């Protein structure tokens, strides 16, 4: 991986037992067992090149790998650098070349026997830095066998913050993410009162009990004190950040 892009696959051995790893130019393929259901699966993480010739070569390699595999439960995920329909791209001037490539892309997906799953969230997953073009380049595609095993599978396109691509998540059921983490804003650190507020709160609150419990109570007290201090000095920072992000997302959409 580098500043020009790359691929990284990370998994939990307690959930997914990998039997085979194949890394080629443009994709990493993992074959293994999803332990919760004892289901053999293949997941291919894809980063397709931009030029058409290299893209076709990638398609051929993946098609060959699928034909050689005994596993029928497949999932392709990543940046395909191609759209399936003209409506999935706005701002492009290459209509004829796009149309021809779209047809080839869809023919390849049909040969791979994979298809899109229901999508929730933003309609486009990539935006040109100057905002002149938006495309749905990132997607999840699964086989019929995958859908038979996990019929509620869906793709979530999350909000884009630092990258020009939106993060995407495969979800097969409702996920409880637990309590929201406490955030420390950079604006706090630049305020002269911040460190004094932290020191005063930390020294004044001395709960009794074993060390772990006392630390938990001190952190909870500090969290509440900082929330009040932040609201009094900066207003609702969280809401301000959300409003700015929403304005950016509205401009992209």
From TrEMBL:
Matching InterPro entries, A to Z? Endo/exonu/phosph_ase_sf
> Which PANTHER family does this UniProt record tie to the protein?
BNAC02G09200D PROTEIN (PTHR33710), ENDONUCLEASE_EXONUCLEASE_PHOSPHATASE DOMAIN-CONTAINING PROTEIN (PTHR33710:SF64)
* Protein's UniProt name: Endonuclease/exonuclease/phosphatase domain-containing protein
- In its UniProt entry, the species of origin is given as Glycine soja (Wild soybean)
């Amino acid at each position: 991986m580098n500043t020009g892009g790359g691929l990284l696959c990370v998994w939990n051995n307690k959930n997914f037992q990998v039997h085979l790893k194949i890394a080629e130019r443009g994709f990493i393929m993992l074959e293994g067992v999803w332990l919760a259901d004892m289901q053999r699966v293949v997941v291919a993480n894809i980063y397709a090149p931009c030029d058409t010739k290299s893209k076709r070569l990638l398609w051929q390699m993946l098609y060959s790998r699928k034909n050689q595999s005994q596993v029928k439960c497949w999932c392709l995920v990543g940046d395909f650098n191609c759209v399936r329909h003209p409506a999935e791209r706005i701002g492009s001037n290459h209509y004829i070349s796009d149309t021809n490539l779209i047809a080839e892309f869809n023919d390849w997906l049909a040969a791979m026997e994979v298809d899109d799953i229901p999508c929730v969230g933003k309609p486009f997953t990539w935006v040109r830095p100057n905002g002149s073009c938006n495309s749905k380049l990132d997607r999840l595609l699964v086989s019929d066998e995958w859908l038979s095993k996990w019929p509620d599978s869906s793709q979530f396109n999350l909000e884009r913050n630092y990258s020009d691509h939106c993060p995407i998540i495969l979800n097969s059921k409702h996920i409880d993410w637990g309590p929201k983490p406490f955030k420390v804003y950079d604006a706090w650190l630049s305020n002269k009162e911040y460190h004094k507020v932290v020191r005063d709160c930390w020294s004044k609150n001395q709960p009794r009990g074993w060390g772990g419990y006392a630390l938990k109570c001190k952190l909870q007290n500090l969290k509440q004190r900082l929330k009040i201090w932040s609201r009094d000095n900066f207003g609702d920072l969280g809401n301000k950040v959300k409003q700015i992000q929403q304005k950016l997302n509205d401009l992209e959409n």
